[in-house]
Design goal:
The protein is mostly beta strands. It is built from two helices and 32 strands.
């Protein structure tokens, strides 16, 4: 199994066709093969260590979703919301809700047609409880949709039908009713864009076009914003060494590369979103690079100085993180890796401010956590795995610190 993020299966699939655009059949076939390879490499299930519990195992098929890859969303009542890439009545993924008692409800089954399909991104919830997200295929133009799911209803409202933009990251809210996200295969030379959506008009437009390898290439995950509305994110490729970048982008579309990864000891191929602290420092992960070529956790100071906080070593340690981090009030960083651990099925880790790493969970069998964690602020972490669980279709888990 390749060490790249399984999210990047969609990008690798483009190479099979020898072109920079992705066919629906190629993407679904490649990602499905990648998932099957992980699932058959080891049996179902995960180690239920102290503080770890499986909240829900996806069954797949027409009756349930399968293969979640992005972070969950949690409301004030403790309900969890998320997306699955596959499964559901048409096999094109679902939006689901998981109640605190473990009861799952399918809020939406994607049809792969006008309603979109394969939601390879997380969700955003507005103040009224409506959910927003995006899909990479379907819609009237075939390029996916940005959708709205009203609170308490199971009727999807496509806000915008995309044309070849293929968004990958979750949406975040900006000022004046604007949502921001990224599209990995849009724009000039299909290098990707930062995009914005005006909710009132439904207008989607590129805020910034990534231009070439020196500028960064193909953002794979969502953005974060500071109090001034400045957006921060990563590109998985490109930059001066072609190993990815950290960038910022103003609401006016002015982009600046803050750091260019070399792919050496500093890491390379960042695939996850960033997290920040009150001092303006940015924290993230790279899928590759580092002392052991298994990825790193890094800190980027406001002056552009990068510090590697942890080099993943594989084995009992994790390897190849494909998602961003979550940071608690004490400065601890939490994250996941796709590989490493007892069965090379991935781990959940904590990195203390002094640099000490603690493995909170090493998955057994087939798991591969591919999405970021969320923290309820009370010592409970929630996440998903791409595969594993009782049917090898992924699961939702909780870790109590």
């Amino acid at each position: 199994m390749c060490l790249l993020s399984l999210k990047k299966a969609l990008i690798v699939a483009t190479l099979f066709g020898g072109r920079e655009t992705m066919t629906l059949a190629c993407a679904r076939a490649f990602l499905g093969t990648a998932i099957l390879a992980v699932a058959t490499a080891a049996g179902p299930g995960a180690a239920e260590a102290k503080g770890f519990k499986v909240l829900y195992s996806f069954a797949g098929g027409p009756g349930d979703g399968a293969n979640p890859t992005h972070a969950l969303l949690r409301d004030k009542d403790g309900n969890l919301y998320g997306t699955t890439d596959f499964g559901g009545t048409s096999g094109y993924g679902t939006v689901f809700k998981l109640a605190p008692d473990g009861t799952e409800s399918i809020l939406l089954n994607f049809d792969g047609a006008d309603g979109g399909g394969n939601p390879l991104g997380g969700l955003y919830m507005d103040k009224k409880g409506a959910l927003y997200g995006s899909t990479v295929i379907g819609g009237t133009n075939g390029g996916g949709v940005i959708f709205k799911l009203s609170h308490g209803k199971e009727t999807e409202y496509p806000l915008y039908h995309l044309t070849g933009t293929e968004p990958m990251g979750s949406l975040i809210a900006g000022a004046n009713g604007v949502l921001y996200g990224t599209a990995w295969n849009d724009g000039l030379d299909y290098a990707g864009t930062v995009t914005e959506l005006e909710l009132k008009s439904g207008l989607v437009r590129p805020l910034y076009f990534f231009t070439n390898y020196n500028d960064g290439f193909r953002p794979l995950d969502g953005l974060i914003a500071d109090k001034h509305g400045i957006l921060y994110g990563t590109t998985s490729e490109g930059g001066t060494s072609e190993n990815g970048t950290v960038f910022k982008c103003t609401p006016m579309g002015i982009e600046t590369d803050l750091y260019n990864f070399t792919g050496g000891s500093d890491g390379g191929d960042p695939a996850g979103a960033l997290v920040s602290d009150s001092g303006g420092n940015l924290y993230g992960t790279t899928n590759l690079g580092g002392a052991n070529s298994s990825g790193v956790v890094f800190k980027l100071a406001p002056d552009g100085t990068e510090t590697v906080l942890h080099d993943f070593a594989g084995g009992k340690d994790g390897a190849n993180p494909a998602a961003g981090l979550v940071r608690d009030a004490k400065g601890n960083l939490y994250g996941t890796t796709q590989f490493g651990g007892h069965d090379n099925a991935g781990v959940v880790f904590r990195l203390a401010p002094n640099g000490k790493e603690t493995i909170l969970e090493a998955f057994k069998g087939s798991a591969s956590p591919d999405g970021a964690l969320i923290d309820d602020g009370q010592g409970h972490l929630f996440g998903t795995t791409l595969t594993g669980g009782t049917s090898n279709n992924g699961m939702v888990f909780e870790i109590d610190e």
